[in-house]
Amino acid sequence: MFHPLPLFVGLRYVRARSHTFFVSFITWVSLLGVCIGVAALIVILSVMNGLGDELRDRLLSLSAHARVVATQGTAVAPDWQAVRRRIVALPGVAGVAPYAQLQALAVRAPEMLPVSLRGIDPQAEAAVTEVARSVTQGRLKDLTPGSHRVIIGEIIAQRLGVAIGEPITLLIPTVSDNGTPDPKLREFIVAGVFEVGLQEHDGTLLFANLADVRALAPGSAEEGLRLRFQDVLAAPELALKIGRQLPPGLQAIDWTAEHANYFRAIRIEKTMMALILLLIVAVAAFNLVAMLVMVVTDKRTDIAILRTLGAPPCNVLGVFLTQGLVIGWLGVILGVILGVAIALNVGAIVPFLEHTFGFQIMDSDVYYITAIPSDLRWTNVLAIALAALLLTALATVYPALRASRVAPAEALRYE
To answer: CA-CA-CA-CA torsion for 300, 305, 310, 315, nearest 10 degrees?
Structure first.
């Protein structure tokens, strides 16, 4: 005879066909519920990871990994060239470029848009951002000093109805020496159009030569250095180290601090989505409890016979723990396999569904991201599997305890 006894009897109950259709039905519902819940959790979190990575890449395509700027109240202008040479020599830094930025209004009758005019050095900027690759029309090298040319975002071009070679007027709010407002109007020629696929860039950003921006409002522009690191995820740590070596009056701000609201929203959404989907597994666990309670009621005679033959309560407890764990954990294993398979093949499954049923999940007229990305992280898979295993294990405790407390005499009295 196979030993130990609880494992043998528990597996026998799992393999045996129940005479009660409803109990068998609830068993399959519980197993499928756990499987679907675990698979849905893995797929949804993988897709949200992919969307988060896509958003990060788009944000950083025209944003530096970190910026070095002067703190408020700094009276003396920093020696940016000396600071740049010091930062370039530090380990982990891939590129450094100067910039100057002004807030302005882009005017082309009858439209008017608030924009950010960023002055860059075209050669140095290529080592910091992917602005050159984002320019879909025009050339970045056309931004020569004194040319008064700009490269604008796709959304700005559409809203103002401006094309390459046409003029665009910028109103720069400046303050005169006596403290009164002294706005300036300057006309620029559109030298190119870029498209990142993000409202924050395509709808608000203009690029011009660094010297042209500095000449518009001397001393009023926000100036600093833009940094690119070899590892984007190490930006917070590297920015902290760089900040400690900067002269007084300067600070380093990494991209996680600049775009904290975006990623905080994604993190909260992922947490809430995981909790909601975990309820599917919880409901399946409740079904498992109901199924095991009905099995205990159906097997009262078998329990009484085992107890009469000398089986202690702990053996009866083990029988039903085994049955519940096999059913629950089988559902978890199947769910992990199904979820991982779908998450790894989202790129092929989604187009197939769209082609088969004739609809588009991410409509290009509504969303910037039209393809559904997926980033399967094994830490997420492990956490989901452990949570599901724990829930299903807890679901078996009450029915098993109830079975171990069945009195043999009471169970056999009316048999």
So the answer is: -40
Beta strands in 218-325 (DSSP E): 222-229, 250-254
Q: Structure pTM?
A: 0.73
Burial of 143 (0-12, 13-18, 19+ CB in 10 A): buried
Three-state secondary-structure class, residue 269: helix
Q: Tell me the per-residue pLDDT of 303-326, one tens digit each, with 9 for 90 and over.
A: 666 667 666 777 767 777 777 788
State which amino acid sits at residue 296.
Answer: V
Q: Nearest to residue 278, comparing CAs of 34, 31, 29, 32?
A: 34
Contact present, 193 and 125 (Cβ < 8 Å): no
Question: Amino acid identity of 170?
Answer: L
Q: Coil, strand, or helix at residue 253? A: strand
As given in the structure block, the two tokens for residue 19 are 């005479």
- Enumerate the H helices of 203-312 as residue ranges: 210-216, 235-245, 255-258, 260-298, 300-308
- According to DSSP, the residues that pair with 138 across neighbouring strands are 192
Strand, helix or coil for residue 115: strand
